[in-house]
C-alpha cells in the first residue's frame, strides 16, 4: 500500500493544474476540486488504517534511496493529521462553493480560488508526510504561497494590509527555518529526519540546543505561540469566511505538528521542555484575555485560536506518553471545532450583516438553525462535558497531575482558568449576538423597525419566515457547517478509539525506533 503515500500531495497538485486549464468553466472546476478532495479523504483514511496495522509506510520519491532522495513517511501521526485536514478542507470547499454561488463569486473568484485552494491542500499534506527537513520547508512554502493569494482575495485595502503583515511575518519565519536547516546540515551532513536521530544525539549539548532553539523559533511563529502571535488576529479576520476558517483550522496546526515531530524525534528530553511549558502557559492566558476583550466575533475567535495552541504545547512540553497523546487528540479536536466556529461566524456575518457584537442580536430567533450550529461547537471549544474538548483537556490535566512538577501544576491551573474564560467569552457572544433583542440595523429587522415608525405606533418585532431565512443562508453553506458540527460530535462518540490511536502515535514518537526502522530497515547509514 506504499503507493498510496504520495497521493495526498500529487492529487491536489494535478487537480490544481486541471482547474487552471478549466478557467471559464466554473462548474467543471467545482467538480474537479470536489472529486480530488473526496479522493484525498479516502486515501488518507486508508493510510491511517494501514499505518496502524503495518507501521509507518515509506516511499522514496523518484526511486532515490534515502538519505540521498526525498522520503515521504505516513506513520500514525501523519496519517491522522491527513484524515482530519482532508475532511476539513473538503467541508470548507463546499462552504466556499455555496458562498461563491450566492455572491456571484466576488469573494471567491473561481478562476483563482480552486487551483490555489488545491495547492494549499497539497502543501499541508506534504508537510505532514515529509521525511526530511528541507521537504518540510518546501511544504511550508507551498502552503504559504497559496495562502498569500487566498488571504488577499477581493483586493480590498484591509485585506492587502493584512496580507502584507502576514507575508512579512511568514517570510521571517521561513528565513529562520532556512537558516536552521543550513545549520543542521553543517553540523550533521544530512537533513533526513530518521538519519538525524543518531547524528543529533552525537552532537555536543550546546550545539543541539542552538539547533533546537532555531527550529522552535521558526515553528513557534508559524504556530502563533505567545509572544510570536501578534500577527494572527490582524490577518485572519479580514479574509473571506472560508479562507479564514481553513487558515484557523490548519495553518497554525502545521506549525504545531512540526514542533511535535521535531521535539520527539530529533530532540527527546531536550533542555527546552521547561521553556515549552512556560510558553504554553503564557499562550493560554494571554490569548484568552485578548479574546475576552474583543467586541468582534472573528477577532474573538482568533484570540481563542491562539490561546488553545497553549494546550497542545502543554502536552508536548510534558514529554510523557499521556501528555503527548492528549496533545495529539486536542490537535484533532481543535482543527475541527475552530474551523466550524469560523464557518459559523461567516454565517453570522451573512445573516446579521456584521460580526461586531454591538451590531448583532436576536439571531436565535432569526435563524434557530444558525444558533444550533454555533452553540454546539462553542460548548465543545469551552470544554463542557461530555464533548471532545472536555476529554482532551481532561487528558492534559491528568498528565500534568501525574507529572507533579511546579510548572506542570501551573499549567493545570492555567488550563482550567483558560477553559473558564473561554466559556465566558463564548457566553458573551451568545448573549449579545443570539439572545438579546435584534439590533435595528440588522437585515429584516431594520425594515420592521422602519415600518413600525411609519405607522406611528409601536409594533412588536416578528421574525421572518423560515423561507426568508433560508434565502439568506445558502444550503451549501449551512450543510457544510452542519457536517463539521456532526464531525465534532463524532469525535466525542469515537473518543475512545481516537485516544487509542493518539496513544499509539505518541508511543511510537517517544520510542523513535519505528520511524527510523521504517525508513532504514537495515539501519541508518
Short key terms for the protein model shown above:
525 residues; mainly alpha; two-stranded antiparallel sheet; 2 strands; 76% helix; membrane; NADH_UbQ_OxRdtase; transmembrane; Na+/H+ antiporter subunit D; ND/Mrp_TM
In short:
The protein is built from 22 helices and two strands. By secondary structure, the protein is an all-alpha fold.
Q: What's the story with the biggest beta sheet? A: 2 strands, antiparallel
Helix content: over 70%
Number of helical segments? 22
Order of helices and strands: HHEEHHHHHHHHHHHHHHHHHHHH
Coarse structural class:
mainly alpha
Based on DSSP secondary structure assignment, what is the total number of beta strands? Answer: 2
Q: Outline, from the CA principal axes?
A: globular
Give the termini distance in whole angstroms: 26 Å
Average pLDDT taken over every residue: 86
Low-confidence stretches: 446-471
Strand order, largest beta sheet: 1-2
- Beta-strand fraction estimate: under 5%
Q: Radius of gyration, rounded?
A: 23 Å
Detailed description of the structure:
With 525 residues, the chain is mainly α. Helices cover 76% and strands 2% of the residues. It contains 22 helices and 2 strands. It has a two-stranded antiparallel ribbon. Helix 3 (76-103) packs antiparallel against helix 10, helix 12 packs antiparallel against helix 17 (406-435) and helix 16 runs antiparallel to helix 17 (406-435).
Amino acid at each position: 500500500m506504499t503507493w498510496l503515500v504520495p497521493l495526498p500531495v500529487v492529487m491536489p497538485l494535478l487537480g490544481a493544474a486541471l482547474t487552471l486549464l478549466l478557467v471559464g468553466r466554473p462548474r467543471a472546476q467545482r467538480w474537479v476540486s470536489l472529486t480530488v478532495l473526496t479522493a484525498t479523504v479516502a486515501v488518507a483514511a486508508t493510510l491511517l488504517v494501514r499505518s496502524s496495522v503495518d507501521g509507518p509506510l515509506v516511499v522514496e520519491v523518484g526511486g532515490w534511496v534515502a538519505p540521498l532522495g526525498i522520503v515521504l513517511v505516513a506513520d500514525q501521526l501523519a496519517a491522522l493529521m491527513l484524515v482530519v485536514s482532508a475532511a476539513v478542507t473538503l467541508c470548507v470547499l463546499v462552504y466556499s462553493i455555496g458562498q461563491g454561488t450566492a455572491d456571484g463569486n466576488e469573494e471567491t473568484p473561481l478562476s483563482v480560488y480552486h487551483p490555489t485552494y488545491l495547492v494549499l491542500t497539497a502543501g499541508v499534506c506534504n508537510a505532514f508526510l515529509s521525511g526530511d527537513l528541507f521537504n518540510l520547508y518546501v511544504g511550508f512554502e507551498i502552503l504559504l504561497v497559496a495562502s498569500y493569494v487566498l488571504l488577499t482575495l477581493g483586493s480590498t485595502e484591509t485585506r492587502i494590509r493584512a496580507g502584507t503583515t502576514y507575508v512579512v511575518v511568514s517570510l521571517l519565519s521561513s528565513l529562520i527555518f532556512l537558516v536552521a536547516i543550513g545549520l543542521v546540515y553543517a553540523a550533521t551532513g544530512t537533513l533526513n529526519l530518521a538519519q538525524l536521530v543518531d547524528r543529533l544525539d552525537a552532537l555536543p549539548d550546546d550545539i543541539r540546543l542552538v539547533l533546537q532553539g532555531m527550529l522552535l523559533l521558526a515553528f513557534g511563529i508559524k504556530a502563533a505561540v505567545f509572544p510570536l502571535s501578534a500577527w494572527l488576529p490582524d490577518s485572519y479576520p479580514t479574509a473571506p469566511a472560508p479562507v479564514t476558517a481553513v487558515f484557523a483550522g490548519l495553518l497554525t496546526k502545521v506549525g504545531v505538528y512540526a514542533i511535535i515531530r521535531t521535539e520527539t524525534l530529533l530532540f527527546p528530553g531536550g533542555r527546552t521542555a521547561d521553556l515549552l511549558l512556560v510558553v504554553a502557559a503564557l499562550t493560554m492566558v494571554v490569548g484568552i484575555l485578548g479574546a475576552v476583550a474583543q467586541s468582534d466575533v472573528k477577532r474573538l475567535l482568533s484570540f481563542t485560536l491562539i490561546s488553545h495552541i497553549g494546550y497542545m504545547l502543554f502536552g508536548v512540553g510534558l514529554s510523557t506518553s499521556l501528555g503527548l497523546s492528549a496533545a495529539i487528540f486536542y490537535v484533532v479536536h481543535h482543527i475541527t471545532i475552530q474551523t466550524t466556529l469560523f464557518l459559523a461566524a461567516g454565517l453570522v456575518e451573512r445573516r446579521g450583516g456584521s460580526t461586531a457584537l454591538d451590531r448583532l442580536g436576536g439571531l436565535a430567533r432569526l435563524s434557530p438553525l444558525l444558533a444550533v450550529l454555533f452553540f454546539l461547537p462553542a460548548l465543545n471549544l469551552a470544554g463542557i462535558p461530555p464533548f471532545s474538548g472536555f476529554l482532551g483537556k481532561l487528558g492534559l490535566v491528568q498528565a500534568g497531575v501525574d507529572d507533579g512538577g511546579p510548572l506542570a501544576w501551573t499549567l493545570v491551573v492555567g488550563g482550567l482558568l483558560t477553559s473558564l474564560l473561554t466559556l465566558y467569552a463564548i457566553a458573551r457572544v451568545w448573549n449579545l449576538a443570539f439572545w438579546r433583542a435584534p439590533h435595528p440595523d440588522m437585515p429584516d429587522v431594520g425594515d420592521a423597525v422602519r415600518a413600525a415608525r411609519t405607522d406611528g405606533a409601536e409594533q412588536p418585532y416578528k421574525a421572518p419566515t423560515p423561507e426568508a431565512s433560508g434565502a439568506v443562508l445558502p444550503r451549501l453553506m449551512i450543510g457544510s457547517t452542519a457536517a463539521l458540527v456532526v464531525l465534532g460530535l463524532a469525535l466525542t462518540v469515537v473518543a475512545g478509539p481516537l485516544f487509542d490511536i493518539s496513544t499509539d502515535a505518541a508511543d511510537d514518537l517517544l520510542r523513535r525506533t519505528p520511524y527510523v526502522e521504517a525508513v532504514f530497515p537495515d539501519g541508518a547509514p
